[in-house]
Amino acid sequence: MSNDWRDEFRSGLANLVDQAVVSGAKQADVFKATIEEIERLRIANERDPDRAEDVSAGAIEEPANDWPAAST
Known about the structure:
Layout: H1 4-22, H2 27-47, H3 51-57
């Protein structure tokens, strides 16, 4: 089993933390915010595990062009 996605995830997360610290954030604050955001995502996933299905159900259809001035 390959851990390529984990390596890529770890690298991306380290880059995000570095960017925040370079921008002036304290590393401890970034770690805390990261943990809080992961917890928020976990809770959201428990409530609606596949939000992509919701998009198609609520898709906005193109309006009909059958009103009187549409043909002019």
